[in-house]
Design goal:
The protein is an all-alpha fold. The protein folds into 2 domains: about 50 residues, Arc Repressor Mutant, subunit A, CATH 1.10.10.60; about 130 residues, Orthogonal Bundle (Tetracycline Repressor, domain 2). Helix content is about 75%, strand content about 0%. It is built from 9 helices and no strands. Helix 6 crosses helix 7. The radius of gyration is 19 Å and the shape is elongated. InterPro entries: DNA-bd_HTH_TetR-type_CS (IPR023772), Homeodomain-like_sf (IPR009057), HTH-type_Tx_Regulator (IPR050624), HTH_TetR (IPR001647). Keywords: DNA-binding. This is TetR/AcrR family transcriptional regulator. It comes from Paenibacillus mendelii.
C-alpha cells in the first residue's frame, strides 16, 4: 500500500469510525486496527487524532463546496431553471446516499460550539454557497434566463434552503425535499415575490 493510499484509507476509516462512535470514543488504536497498520505507522501519517479530525473536516468542506455541484458556465437560457433544480437535488441525493455524512457533520457542528475554527469553516462553507448563488444568478440575468433583481437576497434564500434541508434530513424528517427545492427554484427563477 502506498503512502497516499494509506493516508486516504486512514481518512476514510476515520470518517466511518467518527460517525459511528463519535470523536471522543474513537481512538488512534481503533483507527490503526481498522486500517490494519501499526500505531507508529498511523502516527507517521497523522501526529494525533485531532489532526485526523482537522484534515478530514477540510476534505469534507472541499467535497461539499458550491463548485462541486454548480458549474456556472453550463447554465444557459434554455436550461437555467431545470439545471438549478437538478444540481440542487444532487446535494440532497448525495447526503441520502452517505449513511455517515449526517452523523459526522453533527459531530463537527458540536465541535464548532467549542472550537471557533470549526464554526468559522462551517460559516465559510455557507458563505461560499451564497457567493456562488449570487454569481450564478447574475449569470442567469446576463443571459436573460431570470430577472436582474435581488440577486443577493435570492442567493441567501437558496443557501438557507440548502442548509435547512441538510439539517432536516439529519433529523430524519421525511419531508418532500425534492418538491420543496423545486418550488423554491421555480419561485426565484420566475420572479415570485413575497407579499
Amino acid at each position: 500500500m502506498s503512502i497516499s493510499s494509506t493516508y486516504t484509507t486512514i481518512l476514510e476509516t476515520g470518517y466511518r469510525l467518527f460517525a459511528e462512535h463519535g470523536f471522543e470514543k474513537t481512538s488512534m488504536t481503533m483507527i490503526a486496527k481498522e486500517v490494519n497498520i501499526s500505531k507508529p505507522a498511523l502516527y507517521y501519517h497523522f501526529v494525533s487524532k485531532e489532526s485526523i479530525i482537522e484534515v478530514l473536516f477540510d476534505e469534507i468542506c472541499k467535497s461539499i463546496g458550491f463548485e462541486n455541484f454548480f458549474t456556472i458556465q453550463d447554465y444557459t437560457n434554455d436550461n437555467f431553471e431545470e439545471k438549478l433544480i437538478s444540481d440542487g437535488l444532487r446535494i440532497i441525493l448525495k447526503q441520502n446516499e452517505d449513511i455517515y455524512y449526517t452523523r459526522i457533520m453533527n459531530q463537527y457542528q458540536a465541535l464548532g460550539y467549542r472550537n471557533p475554527t470549526y464554526s468559522r469553516k462551517l460559516i465559510d462553507s455557507l458563505d461560499g454557497f451564497t457567493t456562488g448563488f449570487v454569481a450564478l444568478l447574475q449569470h442567469g440575468a446576463r443571459i436573460g434566463a431570470i430577472e436582474d433583481t435581488d440577486a443577493l437576497v435570492k442567493a441567501q434564500m437558496l443557501t438557507m434552503m440548502i442548509d435547512s434541508m441538510d439539517n432536516f434530513i439529519s433529523y430524519g424528517l421525511a419531508y418532500h425535499y425534492e418538491a420543496i427545492w423545486t418550488k423554491a427554484v421555480v419561485t426565484i427563477v420566475r420572479g415570485g415575490t413575497v407579499r
